[in-house]
Each structure stands twice: as structure tokens, then as C-alpha cells.
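Quick one - inputs below.
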Amino acid sequence: MNEIPAAVCPTSLAFQMLGAAHEVEARLESALDRIGLSVAKFGVLSKLVEAGEPLALGSLAERSCCVRSNMTQLVDRLEADRLVERINDPSDRRSVRAALTPAGRERHAEGAHIVEEAGRAVFASLDDGERATLQRVLAQLGRSP
Amino acid sequence: MNEIPAAVCPTSLAFQMLGAAHEVEARLESALDRIGLSVAKFGVLSKLVEAGEPLALGSLAERSCCVRSNMTQLVDRLEADRLVERINDPSDRRSVRAALTPAGRERHAEGAHIVEEAGRAVFASLDDGERATLQRVLAQLGRSP
DNA sequence: CCTGTATGATTCACCCATGAACGAAATTCC
DNA sequence: GGAATTTCGTTCATGGGTGAATCATACAGG
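Output:
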């Protein structure tokens, strides 16, 4: 059976995708909430850990695929949490770099653990092949635009 | 090749999924923006069209998988756009029902057209089999929790 | 030099979403 | 009938996101 799959309605597929992603995000969000992080905050910490050095807010916004004004506020909150610090760039006085604090580095490590767990739970109902297919299809979806 | 797919990292898969959904949502959002709608507003109009009758805000919130306070504001904005109207329920004076206006019904029809187009464009890089697989995997993801 | 122009961050107004607190109305249970 | 409880919508504070406007600084070209 199922040799000739019926054409999939693009509208319902799109909304199904948004719904599923909403579900996944809610699960990560509630897991991270246990250590006072959000998906957005964890994302910023990850970028800083990856980079291995303080990053200008604009660069951070670009890597996070969001606008600069958003990063301003996100870093405001992260700074209030004492997880990052703003430092001035002497070589360009317009620029402000976000630097991880030791607490930020540590919180990111805890977050990475939690996200790994939560991710595993979310995709537990899929077998290895389905996960690989999903990854391939999502990547394809990102490449075309 | 690829007989034994490497295990997929759940963290990166989760973030890839959020990123792809963000992309899809942004495309729908920008398409709907041309007629002054958003994905959230279109969703509410759709629920009202489906139901074929005015719906209480609580019921609308439940069908949209969001909290009631959110629906209050969403209906505020839809009412400001003259696309829905609040009507009192004489049989339960606590209840407020949202009713489509003729403009709302018409705007929904335009939106449905636009979303269909945009959805088709978004998934254009996938073949029929991939779309069917994606749908199946997303459904599976939603069933397990 | 100095006058544009481009770029970095911020502020502001807005949209969407959540949860807690609240008042009003319906229900339940003496 | 009246007290306690539940349910409905709203309001408020907060978090996360966008785009437009603004200010300071850097970087041209004359």
C-alpha cells in the first residue's frame, strides 16, 4: 500500500510544521526553565562558547538570525543574570562586545546537558532512519530559499 | 552508501527544526502581510470559518492551542481591523463570542489563497515522497507526548 | 579639512505569547 | 436561599521578536 502517496496539502503541511516546532520549542523551554534559561538565552550563550571570544552584538545577532534590536534586549537580560558582560571595543568605539562570565560558561554547560536530554526525549518516537530523514529534509528546506 | 546512518545529534536536530520552522513562518508572515494579516490572525479566522458559527473566546483559545489571555488580545486586534465582532451570549452572560464579519470572511478567503501559494513555494524543493514523509514524521512527533 | 555616508548600538512602538491575579457570572452543595 | 467553588473573560507584568528612527562613531571623497 501507499505506493502512490496522495498529494500533500501545502497549507496543512505548513501549519503542521509550525505546530510541531511549537511543541518542540515548548519542551526545550520548560526543560531549560529549571536552570533559569530560555531557548533564546541558551542560543546566545552557545554562540559565545562556539566563538571562543567576545562577539560584537551585531555579529551575535547575525549568527542568531535576528535583528540587532532584539540582541540588545537579549543581552540586557543576560547581563542582568550576570551570564554575560558588555565590554567596549577600543578599536571601534561604536562597537560593544558581549563576553561570557564564568557563570555564563557554566550555565551553558548545564543547559547543553539539559537540551541534549530534552531533545532525545522529543525525538524518542522516531527511529534512527526517520531522524536522519528528518534532518535531511529540514536541511533541504533551508537551502532552497 | 549511507546504509548505516550516523546517529543524529538530538540537540542540533531540535535547533534545526526550530530554525526551519522559523523560516517557514517568516515566509507565511510576509506573504500574509500583503493583505494586512498575520499567521496568528489568519489562524483565528480559519477556526471561525471551520466552525461555521460564532465561538466563545475560550473555545477559540483551546482550538488555537493558546491561553485565553492571548485570545483576548488577538480578538481585540481583529476587532480593530473590523474582521470579527464580539457578541454577547444571552444564555451565559460571562461568555463572549467572536463572530466573523463579512469583511472577515472575505479576508480569510484571500488569506487561504495566499497561504496555499506560499506553502507550495516553501516546500517546492521537496518531492512528493519527501513531503509525505515529512507529514508522517511530524504527525508522529505530535502523537507521542 | 570637512562633508557626506555607512555602520554599531540603542530606543520606541508594535505584535504575539505566557502566567498570575481579578471581577463577574454560573454551579454546586449544603 | 445562601456560601463555596468553578468558569469566563480581562488586565497586568514579563519575555521574545520585528522595523523605524536616532545618535555616535568610522570612513570615505571632494
